[in-house]
Design a protein that fits this description.
This protein has one domain. By secondary structure, the chain is mainly alpha-helical. Helices cover 96% and strands 0% of the residues.
């Protein structure tokens, strides 16, 4: 009995961990996209200044 409940706890824990990892990955991806967008804006600003 105890082994079964332990297995269920482990399964639930791993599911939570998976969600957290996906969330962290999404946050990192959004951060990366924002950096690219800001970088493009700055890059365009530099080009505009050079003209």
């Amino acid at each position: 009995m105890e082994k079964m409940s332990g297995m269920k706890l482990m399964a639930g824990h791993s599911k939570d961990g998976q969600m957290k990892e996906i969330w962290l990955w999404l946050m990192r991806f959004m951060n990366f996209l924002m950096k690219i967008v800001y970088g493009m804006k700055e890059f365009r600003g530099e080009l505009w200044r050079l003209k």
